[in-house]
Amino acid sequence: MPLKIIGAGYGRTATCSLRTALEKLGYRTHHGRYLVLGPTEHIDIWTRAYQDPNHEDEWEEIYKDWDAAIDWPSMTFYKELIQKYPDAKVILTVRSAESWYNSMCKTIFKDIFHVKKDEVPHHIWRVSELCRMIMFDGDEADLENPERTKAKFMKIFDDHVAEVKRIVPPERLLIMQLGEGWEKLCPFLRVDIPNEPYPNSNSAKEFGFDELVEIVRNRELQKSETSGITEIKEPSKVEAVQA
Predict the structure, then answer these.
(1) Fewest Cβ atoms nearer than 10 Å: which of 90, 96, 202, 243?
(2) Domain residue spans in the chain?
(3) Which pTM does this prediction carry?
(4) Which CATH number fits the domain 5-96+161-239, given the four candidates 3.40.718.10, 3.40.50.300, 3.40.50.2000, 3.90.1150.10?
(5) What's the Cα-to-Cα distance from 174 to each of 4, 125, 177, 186, 211, rounded to whole Å?
């Protein structure tokens, strides 16, 4: 299925609120949350795509059930995806580089980058390995002294934003600042504005990585006890914890 929307913004730039908004508008939206939760996620394909610039085109396999893709890991490949799907619109979510870095240190750098192999389900470990590889070529923040790596990652963030603005044709690109909502998004997509507030979720305090690990752990336990189980719905209390 051809992608209609490609997200070029880093995680921790309100991509989860955007995911919820796009789903409310009818787009089946791939997001890093589903990479963590999905029992059928194609981690091997993501890995091949990153490690081999001349890799076989396997994007249709990844996106066969989706028509929008935002957040990591998709955004890592935005340059390739905008060539593959020339009619897709591109959304770049942004915030200040400093606030982004502080949020990363409280969430992704702290949780996903530092899982221990013997303490999490195998799928979570593979997701962690993939994220460490594709996000910043294995580089990460110094959590014991965040100020030491702050300037470096702020520059990485600002350079990425500048690159997207330079590469993506302006008629295909929407830049959404933190706090912007339906009034910015819907005209760009040429859809009506819903009669409800724009989603606002997944602050650093709501990241909920431990809850996601428990969902995967319980699913794997049930699979080992009952053959043929491939998917389990998330508990309603976790649905609001947008990762």
Answers:
(1) 96
(2) 5-96+161-239
(3) 0.86
(4) 3.40.50.300
(5) 13, 34, 10, 11, 32
pLDDT in tens, 157-177: 999 999 999 999 999 999 999
Helix (H) or strand (E) holding 94: strand 89-94
User: What tokens appear for 140 in the block?
Assistant: 């990460």
| Per-residue exposure over 57-91, b if at least 16 CB sit within 10 Å of its own CB, e if not | eebeebbeebbbbbbbbbbbbbeebbebbeebbbb
Contact 95, 13 (CB under 8 A): yes
Residue 206 has a pLDDT of 53
pLDDT band for position 87 (cuts 50, 70, 90): very high
